Amino acid sequence: MNKKNWLSSLLFQLFKKSPSPSDSLANQYRHHVGTRMLFLTLLTIGIVVALLYDLATGPSSLTYVDLIKGIWSPNSLSMSQQVIIWDIRLPYALMAILVGASLGLAGAEMQTALNNPLASPFTLGVGSAATFGASLAIVFDFSDYGISQTYLLPIFAFSLACLTSLIILGVANSLGGSIQSVLLFGIALMFGLNAMVGVIQFIAEEGELQQIVFWTMGSLARADLEKAFIVSFVLLLCFFISLRHAWSMTILRSGEEQAQSMGINVKRLRLMTLIRVSLVTAVALAFVGEIGFIGLVAPHIARMIIGESHRFFIVASTLCGALLLSLASIVSKGFIPGLVLPIGMVTALVGIPFFIALIYQHQKRNPI
């Protein structure tokens, strides 16, 4: 290399602009955001694929072409095929996605509000409270007051679920937020509510008993488009309110003292969060019954990949719940040929081992 080229190279190395720390942080931030958006996109694609597969799964020989024709141009198919798609399969598949999304959202918010990784609408008794409320609405007929049971079930389920959430919040505050104590109280509350449901089953008439048993097993068999619309409306309402409070929830996850130091009213935030959890859980379960573990599993999957930033975590947990319950719906149809299992059984079979693994993992990190 001659003297002139060597001097030019030296001057270039000395005076070239090196990346500033702010540029490096900005690149890292863009990378993290891009990775999270990619994961959310893949989840959305997975939900669409699962929806189509769920629609195509069943005893009748409908092809994917028939499904697409039946959705976009119903009159191109026979009347029986239209009934299968619009009255049976589409409400069933849509309700699986909507209920799964509702439980995923509820689980994510409850775990953050109570700072409890084992919290979910069922492990803390909120789901059992909704079942108890629905059982009361089924046995004690209020149709004379001009209220349809389609709306009466969600009202009763929400009222009992909300009351239970407030009790759990009070216990969590009085016990200093101890994870083990709150979880044990929630489990005790769940068993107590299940015992009350048993009493109602004992005094119920045959038709009422059948409805209550349907509730406790968890099934999508009675889904229809009107119920799907109600669930979707409440889900979207609670979802966008949750996104509005995403920043506050992210700070709360860092600790109650830090949240208060930044001007966040922690008590009000927790109260409003648990009311949202009660509403979205009660309305989702009012039409399908008890479906456990989705609200526990979905947030953990989302947290492992997305992290604690709630503007992404809330969306990811909601989508994970939708995908998990849609896959469970497919399994419930194909597990035993010619028979559709109640979807609550499928989620329990998958969720119980996961729940045990979570308890074991938490015990290793926080030995008594």
From TrEMBL:
Q: How does it sit in the membrane?
A: Multi-pass membrane protein
Q: Which GO BP terms, alphabetically?
A: siderophore-iron import into cell
Family the entry assigns? Belongs to the binding-protein-dependent transport system permease family. FecCD subfamily.
According to the UniProt record, one GO cellular component term is:
plasma membrane
Compartment annotation: Cell membrane
Protein name, entry field: Iron complex transport system permease protein
**Major subcellular site:** membrane
Query: Which PANTHER family is this protein grouped with?
Result: ABC TRANSPORTER PERMEASE PROTEIN MJ0876-RELATED, FERRIC ENTEROBACTIN TRANSPORT SYSTEM PERMEASE PROTEIN
Keyword Transport annotated: yes
Which residues are listed as membrane-spanning? 37-56, 83-106, 118-139, 151-171, 183-204, 228-252, 273-298, 310-331, 338-360
> What keywords are assigned to this protein?
Cell membrane, Membrane, Transmembrane, Transmembrane helix, Transport
Query: Which Pfam families is this protein grouped with?
Result: FecCD
Q: Tell me, what is one Gene Ontology molecular-function annotation carried by this entry?
A: transmembrane transporter activity
